[in-house]
Design goal:
Length: 209
């Protein structure tokens, strides 16, 4: 059977491709050309393998999209399950999720970029959007809890605060490049410093004596 790993039997191929490397190339092409405009023939050409070699790993282009979107979403939800996101003051848990989301974006930049371009044009995309909305609700609940604890200014709706926070995080896909000399931690530090300064509740002024 022709397979991506079995380079000796791939007629046109570059040996040694795995499902992960297949996904890397597929996501790069989806981001470059658009998912709908990308054919399996083009993916095979880009990989240097036969289409049957791709079908050894996945059943269709739709499955490639699902795996790619799940990779980004699974990484984001994993952040919400880390100890720093599940215990302590809500404001600290919120900061942990924001920092973790920046790290995910830096580590999985092409996959997150693809996720942010999803518009719900297919059942796979609709499922991804539903998961994104669940993630948004987790963040909104953290903002609301921090507000109730007195650590977040109460004059902005938590849902709006959540959208503003992650609108800023998501905008990083437009310009951030992992090889540009700015680490994910440095990027997270800068984002937290600028956004949380306006987010945190300000102590009431001390009345004059």
């Amino acid at each position: 059977m022709t397979s991506i790993e079995n380079g000796s039997r791939v007629r046109r191929g570059r040996p040694g491709h795995s499902l992960d490397s297949l996904l890397d190339v597929a996501v790069a092409v989806f981001n470059e050309r658009g998912y709908d405009a990308t054919s399996m023939e083009e993916l095979a050409t880009r990989l240097g393998v036969t289409k049957s070699a791709i079908y050894h790993h996945v059943s269709s282009k739709v499955e490639l999209l699902r795996l790619a979107l799940d990779r980004a979403l699974d990484a984001l939800f994993a952040v919400t399950e880390e100890p720093g996101a599940t215990s302590g003051p809500a404001i600290d848990r919120l900061e942990h999720v924001v920092r973790g989301s920046v790290r995910v974006l830096a580590a999985e930049l092409p996959f997150v970029t693809l996720l942010l371009r999803v518009r719900g044009n297919s059942p796979v995309e609709q499922a991804a959007l539903q998961r994104r909305r669940r993630f948004d609700r987790v963040v909104t609940d953290l903002v609301r809890a921090a507000e109730e604890e007195g650590d977040v200014r109460p004059d902005v709706d938590p849902a709006i605060t959540s959208r503003l926070l992650f609108g800023t995080v998501n905008s990083l896909t437009e310009w951030y490049r992992p090889d540009g000399g700015l680490s994910a931690d440095d990027l997270a530090d800068a984002l937290v410093a600028t956004t949380f300064q306006g987010l945190r509740a300000r102590p009431a002024p001390t009345p004059p004596s």
